[in-house]
């Protein structure tokens, strides 16, 4: 299997490179540069290499096909490594940027790497090129004076006429914008592409990356709180998105499972359950256990002493102490697992702070050797180049800190995991911690520009009273209780609508789960993550506005249109290869255009890491779909008998493409829509 992965990786890299070279070649040809000669040679070599890889991949794949069939198949097949890039979805925005870049370079060869801003148009045209204005300044710097409209005209004159399947017409407007109108035939082609190939990822401009997503990361023996819930939800979706793009994703749960608090926990364990080594201790409520031991630690100096001794024993890997530590971690692990199972969070690998024990020694040595550590009141600290706050790498008692483990983890992820991109999900309060880590890692040469790092922060969760989220009695809300309440509220909602009358008990249960977990996730994901977020079941369960309930209903409604035409799901699936969509009606075209924006939205979100953009897109799809459905008959029925008289298959296919796009969005967000609710 590992061998296959390596082949897949190499084949994909080759694909990306071939495609890149194709593009480059096209540009070079158009720009009529003499440097052409070398490229075809390289291209040919890559092609041959790729053909060989594909051939061997084919053999390996056939050999493992049976094994794979029996394994746990993902719901949507991952993009095939041997799928030519041409089969992926096209980002219209990127294509337009490419076209205008070439045209601008041709019109103004003296400007190196011209800026090329293209955006979706709000009026006049589908997209808009805004590059003329910045060029005014650039020309001026070279002593050339030219009006923006004139610049726009010259650029437009260079747009390739032939071979352009995409642009219908362009017009220079206002102070020098270029309005771009797309060809209907192109939009139709893109929608038909969805029917033929399914919702495929767009071509990644930077190729396949090894992406580490560090999320959830609760702490052993402490409450897994709503902050961890946010991290879990946003992190899981971020990882899903990276998966969809075809990256090689590693989901890591950096749990807090190491540190001095284990001394008091183990000392307390020894007292409470003296036979813990032979009999698994029934700890039950670990939070209460934590509180008890903390109380003793604070009040009883003798206990405190034993707690310190226990830490030393644990760190020297004494068997009995390791056993106790493991038992305590197991109790927490079980609790965390319950939450993950209910939220359907999969493939999250536990790699807690304890994993880095030896590596923390190594990183301290590494930093010491580079003379980067300073003494400060017995501590060893490190300053970066730009961040005002130093890291505490070694405490005065010789112990390590959160900073030390994160430095060690960063080193490990870059050098052992070969990460190209590392994404951390924690509350915004940890922003300075990560700034300092990244800053110091750059200074130490651990982090170079080859690796992208992002701290994806999020705001705090508030209760409906706009105060810190707590239970009525002021306790932290247990996540399992919160999820239970979600389930109860979802069922109330369904019975309020008397859905139990038309759904089977199993359908009702599925709908309840879909709504409960869907509403919690969607409420979180649909808001800008930087903002504070008010946790309110009432708001989440509203069926108007951009809520999970609205979106889930919209989806089931679209899915039901085929049924209204007496078509089974299988009929619809079969029609995808025989029917085509034509977007004659204005509302059909509007919907088609929106669907074809999916690839550019995905690329934007992957770059900026703001998932609410996807929710906004989904909402726009749902409302645009309603406009289409109100204006265009898909199924005509005899008013008197209710019999189907006419089915417009092309339109049913447009419904299907819409449903497929929405299904993919749900999948990325970790929601599980149902066919009926
Ligand atoms: N690599 C990391 N620091 N990941 C995030 C860890 C979050 C930490 N355990 C907390 O509860 O706040």
UniProtKB/TrEMBL annotation:
Gene Ontology cellular-component annotations: aminoacyl-tRNA synthetase multienzyme complex; cytosol
Keyword annotations: Aminoacyl-tRNA synthetase, ATP-binding, Coiled coil, Cytoplasm, Ligase, Nucleotide-binding, Protein biosynthesis
Location of the protein in the cell: Cytoplasm, Cytosol
GO molecular function: arginine-tRNA ligase activity; ATP binding
Source domain of life: Eukaryota
Classification via SUPFAM superfamilies: Anticodon-binding domain of a subclass of class I aminoacyl-tRNA synthetases (SSF47323), Arginyl-tRNA synthetase (ArgRS), N-terminal 'additional' domain (SSF55190), Nucleotidylyl transferase (SSF52374)
Domain Arginyl tRNA synthetase N-terminal per the UniProt entry, residue ranges: 94-182
Pfam families: Arg_tRNA_synt_N (PF03485), DALR_1 (PF05746), tRNA-synt_1d (PF00750)
GO process terms (BP): arginyl-tRNA aminoacylation
Enzyme Commission code(s) on record: 6.1.1.19
Catalytic activity as recorded in UniProt: tRNA(Arg) + L-arginine + ATP = L-arginyl-tRNA(Arg) + AMP + diphosphate
Residues that span the membrane, as ranges: none
Domain DALR anticodon binding, residue spans: 551-677
Family recorded in the similarity comment: Belongs to the class-I aminoacyl-tRNA synthetase family.
Protein name per Swiss-Prot or TrEMBL: Probable arginine--tRNA ligase, cytoplasmic
Species for this entry: Tigriopus californicus
């Amino acid at each position: 299997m590992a061998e296959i992965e390596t082949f897949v990786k190499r084949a994909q890299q080759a694909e990306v490179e071939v495609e890149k070279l194709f593009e480059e070649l096209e540009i070079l040809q158009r720009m009529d540069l003499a440097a052409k000669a070398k490229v075809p040679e390289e291209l040919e070599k890559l092609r041959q290499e790729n053909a060989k890889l594909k051939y061997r991949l084919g053999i390996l794949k056939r050999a493992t096909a049976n094994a794979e069939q029996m394994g746990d198949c993902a719901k949507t097949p991952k993009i095939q490594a041997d799928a030519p890039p041409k089969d992926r979805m096209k980002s219209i925005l990127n294509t337009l940027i490419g076209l205008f870049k070439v045209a601008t370079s041709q019109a103004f060869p003296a400007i190196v790497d011209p800026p090329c801003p293209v955006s979706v148009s709000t009026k006049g045209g589908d997209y808009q090129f805004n590059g003329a204005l910045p060029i005014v300044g650039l020309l001026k710097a070279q002593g050339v004076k030219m009006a923006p409209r004139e610049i726009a005209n010259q650029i437009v004159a260079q747009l390739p006429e032939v071979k352009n399947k995409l642009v219908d017409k362009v017009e220079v407007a206002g102070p020098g914008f270029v309005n771009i109108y797309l060809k209907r035939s192109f939009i139709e082609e893109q929608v038909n592409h969805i029917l033929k190939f399914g919702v495929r990822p767009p071509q990644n401009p930077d190729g396949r990356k090894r992406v580490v997503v560090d999320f959830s990361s609760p702490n052993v023996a402490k409450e897994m709180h709503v902050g961890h819930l946010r991290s879990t939800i946003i992190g899981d979706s971020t990882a899903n998105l990276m998966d969809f793009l075809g990256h090689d994703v590693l989901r890591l749960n950096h749990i807090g499972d190491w540190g001095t608090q284990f001394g008091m926990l183990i000392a307390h364990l020894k007292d409470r359950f003296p036979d813990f080594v032979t009999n698994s201790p029934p700890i039950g409520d670990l939070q209460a256990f934590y509180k008890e031991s903390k109380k003793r630690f604070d009040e009883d100096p003798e206990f405190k002493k034993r707690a310190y001794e226990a830490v030393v024993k644990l760190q020297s890997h004494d068997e009995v102490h390791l056993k106790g530590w493991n038992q305590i971690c197991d109790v927490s692990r079980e609790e965390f697992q319950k939450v993950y199972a209910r939220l359907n969070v999969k493939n999250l690998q536990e790699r807690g702070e304890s994993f880095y024990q030896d590596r923390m020694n190594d990183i301290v040595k590494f930093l010491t050797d580079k003379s980067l550590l300073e003494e400060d009141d017995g501590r060893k600290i490190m300053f970066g180049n730009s961040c005002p706050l130093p890291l505490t790498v070694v405490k005065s008692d010789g112990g390590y800190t959160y900073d030390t483990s994160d430095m060690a983890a960063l080193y490990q992820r870059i050098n052992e995991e070969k990460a190209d991109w590392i994404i951390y999900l924690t509350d915004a309060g940890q922003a300075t911690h990560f700034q300092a880590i990244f800053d110091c890692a750059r200074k130490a040469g651990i982090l170079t520009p080859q690796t992208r790092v992002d701290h994806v922060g999020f705001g705090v969760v508030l209760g409906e009273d706009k105060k810190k989220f707590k239970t009525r009695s002021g306790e932290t809300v247990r996540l399992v209780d919160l999820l239970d309440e979600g389930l109860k509220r979802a069922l109330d909602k369904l019975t309020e609508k008397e859905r139990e009358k038309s759904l089977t008990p199993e359908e009702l249960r599925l709908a309840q789960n879909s709504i409960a977990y869907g509403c919690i996730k969607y409420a979180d994901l649909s808001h800008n993550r930087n903002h504070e977020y008010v946790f309110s079941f009432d708001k989440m369960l509203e069926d108007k506005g951009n809520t999970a309930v609205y979106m889930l209903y919209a989806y089931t409604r679209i899915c039901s249109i085929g049924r209204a035409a007496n078509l089974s799901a299988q009929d619809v699936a079969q029609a995808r290869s025989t029917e085509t969509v034509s977007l004659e009606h204005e509302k059909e075209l509007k919907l088609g255009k929106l669907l074809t924006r999916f690839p550019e939205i995905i690329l934007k979100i992957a770059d900026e890491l703001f998932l609410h953009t996807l929710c906004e897109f989904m909402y726009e799809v749902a409302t645009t779909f309603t406009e289409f459905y109100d204006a265009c008959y898909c199924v005509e029925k005899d008013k008197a008998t209710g019999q189907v008289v006419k089915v417009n298959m092309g339109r049913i296919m447009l419904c299907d493409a819409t449903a497929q796009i929405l299904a993919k969005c749900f999948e990325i967000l970790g929601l599980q829509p149902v066919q009926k609710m």
